[in-house]
Amino acid sequence: MAENSGTDPAVETNTEENAAASATIIKVTVKTPKDKEEIAIAEDSSVSQFKEEISKRFKANQDQLVLIFAGKILKDGDTLGQHGIKDGLTVHLVIKTAQKTSGGGSSQTSASSGPGPSQGNTDGSANSSPAGNLGTPQGSGPSPTPTQPPNMLAGFGDLSGLANLGMGSANFMELQQQMQRQLMSNPEMLSQIMENPLVQSMMSNPDLMRQMIVANPQMQQLMERNPEISHMLNNPELMRQTMELARNPAMMQEMMRNQDRALSNLESIPGGYNALRRMYTDIQEPMFSAAREQFGNNPFSALGGNADNSGAQPSRTENREPLPNPWGPPDTAATTTSGTATTTSSTTSSTTPSVSNPLGISSSSLGNGMFNSPGMQSLMQQISENPQLMQNMLSAPYMRTMMQSLAQNPDIASQAPTPTPAPTPTPAAGTNTAQQQLMQQMLQMFAGGNASTPTPEVRFQQQLEQLSAMGFINREANLQALIATGGDINAAIERLLGSQPS
Amino acid sequence: MNQHDSTFGVQLFIYDLSRGMARQLSPIMLGKQLDGIWHTSIVVYGEEFFYGGAGISSCPPGGTMLGPPDTVVELGNTEVTEEIFMDYLSSLGETTYSGDKYRLFEHNCNTFTNEVAQFLTGNKIPSYITDLPSEVLSTPFGQVLRPILDSIHIAPPGGNVISSQNNHS
């Protein structure tokens, strides 16, 4: 058998491929980092023969070729069969650059490997290779010490990549504000949002709305200072009305106008102006300041408004100015007729406090900030196209509590996106604690469904006792009333009195 | 070419980026159980190598912000020396694994790890990791989230980027 299996390099490759009868030709894929080729070779070839083939195909010197298969480096003396290389398998190839690269890393002597670091034969001067390298002193220790400082900066720069994970900004508040601005400048988007059945259904659920509002710490503060507000909030009728208003921007505007007219009329009543003034300073001002602080922070801020139109009025004369442009950019508070009027919750109004919107919260604070990045915007689009999805998400029992927790702990929320490792001792110990807290809360939620809300009886223990001390002995009714008013004793009493004439 | 016949151990570090949340939330959000959002890296020659939005990076094992791994899998041994490996990584980093080629679903850290694992040992990484993107995408929620997720590049800080254009000009 003419078995010139090509050990003689002078022999043409064809001879190798048409190798002797006993050898079968197998097709082996040779894969480099840059590309791959299929090479047909005799099954019983030696590695060096294989390398010859490869060197032709890849236009590299045989010396530069390093073949790897199944974690082993194929040495020239071995045969393919020895390593179990069969038809259809893939062998990896690395083409070494034989000399130190010079110039801007363009030592493209080989087809595949570019300006890699020089072989380990040279000493650590490989690092200074202008082509740049891994920062690893070849041939010596493995740690990339020489180039570590600049690399570390790059490493920290990756934080931005990580931040993208957290929707583009580590600071929820900023996000909200930005989104708000965006929404304000694009009224169409706003009306789209409002018309979205999902949003509408969400708003028609006064309970949910109230919860969200109440969960906001600023709101809670306000409520403490002005019990009327909480009263207002706990009045489901009023809430429902407000939701209606919120849903319907046109109606909203109408309402606002009416309110403003009524208010200005009030002014002309003797003593009315003072009354209005008083009301403003008592109710509205703290709200304004609170609103200013957390401009755009509460997605659904509602305001306790007096249903009977006795709002406050700071201006000295009858106000002839046109009502503020709900879609326009925010301007200062002082110029507009303001009043407490109806509650608004994230509805169509400008940020200037106006009659119906004393907090000056625009509708765009609809959970604004989070949706700043284009990614989130497209998410919103998708979600609005598929409202069912959001509905499902939101109807999950834990969602509410999650939102509550998030609202209560904006810090945690803002830190939540960065997946800092909770248990490991990192320098940011504060972050860890917050992170842990959030995790615990979430875990609690999952574990117990709606676990963060104990039973109404337990919640309202105190109030129940108070009520019974006052003489409302019907515990059942008390409980119902308390549940309906969310724990507000005064409102509960009213309910009870309304239903029990005795 | 004088290469030692010594072999080097190769390990796979698996991290759950969701820190347990995926296990809890996935049945609800996606409708199927996903035990984690897996990020993997290869540990060999006493260093950890991984691919992210910044390209191929390296760091001491467990040295990224993610901390220690959730799972470690022994992939086997390799005869490939560090030097060859670095050559290989540089080439990869220039071509198929440069930072801008990162795609969260199709061409991510796990794609890289899989390829490197095969290069070093001939073994692939466990399939539940590489199957993750398709698992997610096969749910309606995954489809919805896709546009956003596509724009996310995961790059755990704490690593040094390996690239041949590395500030050494």
From TrEMBL, chain A:
Coiled-coil portions: none
Annotated stretches, region: Disordered: 100-157, 295-372, 411-434
CDD domains cross-referenced by the UniProt entry: UBA_PLICs, Ubl_PLICs
Cross-referenced SUPFAM superfamilies: UBA-like, Ubiquitin-like
Molecular function GO terms recorded: polyubiquitin modification-dependent protein binding
Domain UBA, chain residue ranges per copy: 459-499
Main location: nucleus
Keyword Phosphoprotein: yes
Classification via InterPro entries: STI1_HS-bd, UBA, UBA-like_sf, Ubiquilin, Ubiquitin-like_dom, Ubiquitin-like_domsf
Biased composition range(s): Low complexity: 100-120, 332-352
Localisation per UniProt entry: Chromosome; Cytoplasm, Perinuclear region; Cytoplasmic vesicle, Autophagosome; Endoplasmic reticulum
Pfam family, one: ubiquitin
Domain Ubiquitin-like: 26-96
Gene3D superfamilies, per database record: 1.10.260.100, DNA helicase RuvA subunit, C-terminal domain, Phosphatidylinositol 3-kinase Catalytic Subunit, Chain A, domain 1
UniProt keyword Cytoplasm, yes or no: yes
Keyword annotations: Autophagy, Chromosome, Cytoplasm, Cytoplasmic vesicle, DNA damage, DNA repair, Endoplasmic reticulum, Isopeptide bond, Nucleus, Phosphoprotein, Ubl conjugation
Biological-process GO terms, alphabetical: autophagy; DNA repair; ubiquitin-dependent protein catabolic process
SMART domains assigned: STI1, UBA, UBQ
Subunit details: Homooligomer. Binds signal sequences of proteins that are targeted to the endoplasmic reticulum. Interacts (via UBA domain) with GJA1 (not ubiquitinated) and with ubiquitin; both compete for the same binding site. Interacts (via UBA domain) with ubiquitin and with polyubiquitin chains. Interacts (via ubiquitin-like domain) with PSMD2 and PSMD4, regulatory subunits of the 26S proteasome. Interacts with ATXN1/SCA1; interaction with ATXN1 inhibits polyubiquitination of UBQLN4 and interferes with PSMD4 binding. Interacts with HERPUD1.
Official protein name in the record: Ubiquilin-4
Organism name: Sinocyclocheilus grahami
Taxon lineage: Eukaryota, Metazoa, Chordata, Craniata, Vertebrata
Automatic annotation (TrEMBL), chain B:
Catalytic activity: S-hexadecanoyl-L-cysteinyl-[protein] + H2O = L-cysteinyl-[protein] + hexadecanoate + H(+)
Top-level taxon of the source organism: Eukaryota
Gene3D superfamilies (alphabetical): PPPDE domains
Keyword match Hydrolase: yes
Annotated PPPDE domain residues: 8-150
InterPro entries linked: PPPDE_dom (IPR008580), PPPDE_sf (IPR042266)
Swiss-Prot/TrEMBL GO biological process terms: protein modification by small protein removal; proteolysis
Gene Ontology MF annotations: palmitoyl-(protein) hydrolase activity; peptidase activity
Keywords, ordered alphabetically: Hydrolase, Protease
The EC number(s) this enzyme carries: 3.1.2.22
Family, similarity comment: Belongs to the DeSI family.
Name of the protein: palmitoyl-protein hydrolase
Gene giving rise to this polypeptide: desi1a
